[in-house]
Design a protein that fits this description.
The complex is a heterodimer of chains A (479) and B (356).
Chain A: H1 6-21, H2 24-40, H3 47-66, H4 69-106, H5 124-140, H6 149-157, H7 170-173, H8 185-218, H9 225-257, H10 274-280, H11 283-297, H12 304-322, H13 326-355, H14 363-385, H15 389-398, H16 418-432, H17 436-446, H18 449-466
Helix pairs in contact in A: 1-2, 2-6, 3-4, 3-5, 3-6, 4-5, 8-9, 8-16, 8-18, 9-14, 11-12, 12-13, 13-14, 14-15
Chain B: H1 2-16, H2 22-52, H3 57-66, E1 74-77, H4 80-85, H5 88-95, E2 99-101, H6 109-122, E3 128-133, H7 159-168, H8 172-177, H9 181-186, H10 191-199, H11 222-229, H12 240-255, E4 259-264, H13 269-274, H14 278-291, E5 295-298, H15 319-340
Parallel strand pairs in B: 1-2, 1-3, 3-4, 4-5
Classes of the chains: A mainly alpha (479), B alpha/beta (356).
Chain lengths: 479, 356
Amino acid sequence: MLFNSLEFALFFPVVCALYFLVPRKLKTPLLLVASCGFYMAFIPAYILILFTTILVDYFAGIWIENSAGPRKKRLLWISIAATCLILFVFKYFYFFTDTFAMISSEAGLPVWEPAIRIILPIGLSFHTFQSLSYVIEVYRGEQKAERDFITYATYVMFFPQLVAGPIERPQNLLQQFHQVHRFDHDRVVSGLRRMAWGFFKKLVVADRLALYVNDVYGMPHQHNGLQLTIATVFFAYQIYCDFSGYSDIAIGTARVLGFKLMENFDRPYQSSSISEFWRRWHISLSTWFRDYVYFPLGGSKVAKPKWVRNILITFGVSGLWHGAAWTYVAWGLLNGIYLVFGGLTKGIRDRCLGQLGLEHTTFLRRFLMWLTTFILINITWILFRAANFSEAWYIFTHLFSNWDISAIETQNFRLLYFVPAIMAIGLLEVLQAGETRRRIVRAIVAMPTYLRWPAYASIVCFVILFGVYQSAQFIYFQF
Amino acid sequence: MEALEEKLVKEEIVTRGPVDFWRQGVIRLLLFFLFLGLVTFGVDQTLSYGLRRITTSRFGAINAWMSGNVNTQVIINGSSRALVHYDPRIISRETGLSAYNLGANGVQIDVQAGILDAYLARNQAPKIIIQNLEAFSFEATKSGEIYDPGIYMPHLDSPELYRALLAIDHDVWKWRHIPLYGYAVADMRFTWARGIAGLFGIQGRQDYFDGFNPRFKDWSQDFENFRKGASSGVEYKVESKGREALVRCLELARTKGALMILVYSPEYVEMQHLEKNRGEIFLHFRELAEKYGAEFWDYSDSPLCSNRDFFYNSQHLNARGAELFSEDVARRLRRFLESRKVATAPNVSQGSTGSE
């Protein structure tokens, strides 16, 4: 079920009403049933895959807690392997077999390629990672194994963050299922406001920009340099608003029910370095990789060559997590290379810029660093969005050629559509600048009811009327 | 960030005082959603009202006949080919009969039948209905592909139009019954902005003349582009739904006592050669015309068809071509009426959608 669907508009109030009405012992089972319904609205049979993961990690958690020494470690690895096997089969099997077949064929040894394609279960990578974090934390002794199956299953399947995160840690989310969540008008309203902000990002910004991006990236050879450049910048905003919009809706939905999910984005395009960008972008995944891949590899407390290796492995795997294609791996590695380059040249850059009179605090330096970061990130998005390397290369090499301003429309994006698209980006930036959005919310909250309600209603009507409902699916669902 | 949100929630409680009873909170929330529902319903109705006030362009044309102000003796029904081919002013001048063009962009035969039905329910029955045809006349609209849905939003209270659209796309009930759904979800053209403009009496440019929308365009590359992708020709389906819709048009004419003339208006000759099952489709046209006592006029051999100067693409005549064709069809209609001795009333042209 999509958040931006009529079905969800009916489903959510019903679930909320039941959740606050049923006795305490039925609240978690109700959430589990609701989450199953939410997930089964996509492809019902795939819930079996999810339940397999849940079963494996539920028992693994208990066994790991009851074990010690090498057996404990063995159980952890068995659990990780079993969970990852499901991910491998459904997400990476054809990627690896295709790659193997291609290499064999290049070597003159053509091999059989499987003919059947399996559809990737929605959100598989997200709940796999959430399950993995649970068993790892139990292994580390940071989390007690959950004995109640219903509670554990609900932790993995909690519908607000089931298909696209935030990827929660058991220390934060699991214990919340043991708390009592009563109806709190102010908390509910706060959650609804957060949902409205997410819908604005998704419907008004992301899906409007998607119309242009899909046209241009669908057929890059038929578009000029200006169109390619606009589409690349639009995609940067599209993916941010699509994914962070989903996170906002998820956080808001959970808050209405009384749950507190972790923040996933913190205005990433305001970053003035790549490392800062990754502290602000998809925080739940970045910290997951930091805690479970980068740190165990040694992190930065090792010799420089090993640190470089650690960064590249972490970002390479992160790329592969995003999609079963080499373009995603290259996208991850490019981000890793940026970080390595940034880390290795920091001293030299600081000295050079200092000699030019551009100290850390100067506006010009901050602006240049922000601009450089934004451009570098946009370059990585080309790899992320392009269908393959050849199209990515074509786009990259044609960005600044043939800027024909009279031909910036596309098949589905008329000249008129630039007005709401650019207004939406402008409004997003204005609302995100400093504390503007919160100041506005504070002002609305302080209003008397006869002004506050019309203000909320106006915002809802604005989002409804300026929203686009054609590319309904969220980008990150595919991961 | 989260801390700030929490602070905000606390500030909100301080500002407005704590909510003592959860029931009170629930009631307040329910009242707000009721208020929101009323607001969205009000906005929806206001936008529809604004659109109904438009007297120019395609909105003006549909508003004219939906409000029952057309009542002409000849009506022309069809898709964009009807819309841009038949100038009712020329037909009126030649025949002395008032005329109006109901043609609309992107409408397949099933929507055309709905339009004709809605027209006849609101206006006096015409003496003659010209139903324009095309090679794809038997292809029905696919679900979810109703073209330019915004045009219908203010008129979904018409049972004839609503029924026709609902039969094509089951989601049409949402357009009608869920406030703003039609304007926001189904329509991508900011039709609601036109509604706001209409509310304040702001009219767009008048480019519809008694429903006729002349196109002052020269031959484009559209046909060459199309031919590249269909060099081996195209085959149009004869769908039962499409055939039923044309039969519905014929039956409506018969019920209302109007004479139906099926007209295959000019189509660029090279395109005609690409249509592989053209013969089969024309057999259906002839068979239906005979069965329902309608006339069938085929302009495939018109000299206009072989001259690109009169078209802007293979299907559509430009304004110059439309003028010549309208004169031709009007003269033929006059001769036909004389031969049939159909009584023609003196000039009773009514309900023009705007100044010419």
